[in-house]
Amino acid sequence: MITGMQIATTMPSPSKGGGPVDPVFRQIRDLVYKVCGIFQLEEKLYLMADACGRRMKQLGVHSPREYWDLLTVHSSRDAEIRQLLNEVTIGETCLFRSPPQLDALRKVILPELVEDKSKQIVKRLRIWSAGCSTGEESYTLAMNMLEESDRLLKGWTVEILATDLNDRSVETAKAGIYGDYALRSTTDYFKRKYFSPIDEKKLQVRPEVKKLITFSRLNLQDDSRMLFMKGMDLIFCCNVLIYFDGPSKAKVIDHYYTNLNLGGYFFLGTSESLFKLNDKFHLIHFPGTIAYWKPSLKSGKL
Amino acid sequence: MTTSIAATIRERVARIETMPSIPAIFIPLLELLNLPVERVKLDEVVKLVSYDNTIAAQCLRVASSPLFGLAKSPESIKGAVISLGLRKVETILLTCCLSNAFPAKSWALDPTLFWRHSLGCAMVCRKFSDKLGGGDGDKAYMAGLLHDIGLLVSCIAFPKELTAAFALANQEQTPIEEAERTTMGFTHCETGRALAEKWHLANDMLQVIAHHHAPEQSEGAQPLVALVHLSDLLCRMRGMGYGYYERRRVDWVADPAWAILQKEHRNLDGIDLVRFTFEMDEAIEEVFGLVSTIFGGTAARN
Ligand SMILES: C[S@@+](CC[C@H](N)C(=O)[O-])C[C@H]1O[C@@H](n2cnc3c(N)ncnc32)[C@H](O)[C@@H]1O
Ligand SMILES: [Fe+2]
Ligand SMILES: [Fe+2]
Question: I need a labelling partner for A259 at 20 to 30 A (CA). Which of A86, A117, A226, B115 fits?
């Protein structure tokens, strides 16, 4: 039986096709979690080992032990952890990256927000895609909002703000042109409805999707600009804060708390955690995903 | 619940001829599970199991599966305990025991899903109890394994009604206990309680079975019931639920069960819930593997 075989190959050790992973990599995994809050599952530990392997090669380091020393010795620590993070998160972004987030958004959160805000005169939702990179996440959100425009969001205006530190990424995002790799999780339905082909290999996002989004450059560490990002209902900040150290991360999260409306939600990447960074947000579980919630007045759970 | 419904349930559960009588080795097995490992005598387990050939054979088959990766298949229960460890063998035995008591002919609920949920919940309960410290991990495990036993009772005593309840729950994507209340007027908590009384299970197990959806109503054993309640929710949010999307948000910390546990465990707020969730995701494959080796077959996640 197929299931039996899958179990036999995935259960005993985390390494794909090799022997057991050196326990030092587990230590490194824990260190990376402590420093930046990104967690590699045991079964994905080989990814951490691969990433370390690439760094070790570049540095000419021979044993995982020696590499561990580089990650912990004071003089090289911070720089090396940053380098390792670049390797760990390499080329991960794509459209429709996290279906459980989108399900939670459309099936649970939108109905709740729409009901909460139904008495307001201006029916408007504000969404912020913070650290949007080349726009994949922002367009995914926009398309999913458009899908609801005849149903839940009938008569509503949706504004999506998409920001990133990197100018080149923001320019690429504005163009909205994607190849097979970025579109590997996008269904034909969405491709046909919201994209136009520009050559055999590439598709471009249609104007009616782009219309929802404003792209701009923003440094999340720029406190004065952060103060202006007001009135958000939803903030997505996926796989961005992993590059930040503890205190700056906590500062950004505090801003997000202020930026959000009461009853708003904040999403991190699927393997990140806010633990000990902010105790005002409520941790909320949805099927297959988690988010942080700024309690609303009526919840009585402030 | 009115007394008349309670009486109907008790009467129906008592009357139904196919209602399982308690498997002979069940209670002694529970008692063994309740003892610290070092006090369990291997010979007692072996003797107990030898009373029931079907279960002994089933246990050996599971122990020989690739899931456990043993080089040599154990030929006796004693051999299985030596190579797999007592706790694993006990779990296999208990599960086989219960599944024999409730033969899965035409359940309203896919048996694979039911066992994944029950074993998953058992595992989460033990992990959670270990994190809290000072508790009794094995008792928590058992409570998790048995909490939804009322669903099995309802499968037999109220097959049509439960099928209708699941149909409604699937369609509306609402929690099963709500759908049961809508269609039947009572839930698996009440039918489970009737069985627990018939089988003379210990009071704390009875409280778990009867009140795991509203721990504040339990009489005695509140912290255990609260722990099972939260673990059940977590399983349902992380792919080990009842096989359909539940449109809901779970706020652990705002749940009354959290306050109950807080009174008992000072270090509750120190637990990193997100990391706990990730760790539990890791263990899911193991649960799925165990269930498919015991019962064969596969089912969709959720
Ligand atoms: C791995 S990408 C995440 C892309 C997308 N959110 C996703 O999850 O697929 C990380 C992005 O964070 C951006 N970033 C890093 N530091 C930043 C800062 N201080 N302010 C704004 N953006 C930053 C980087 O430029 C990069 O585009
Ligand atoms: Fe239940
Ligand atoms: Fe349950």
Answer: A86
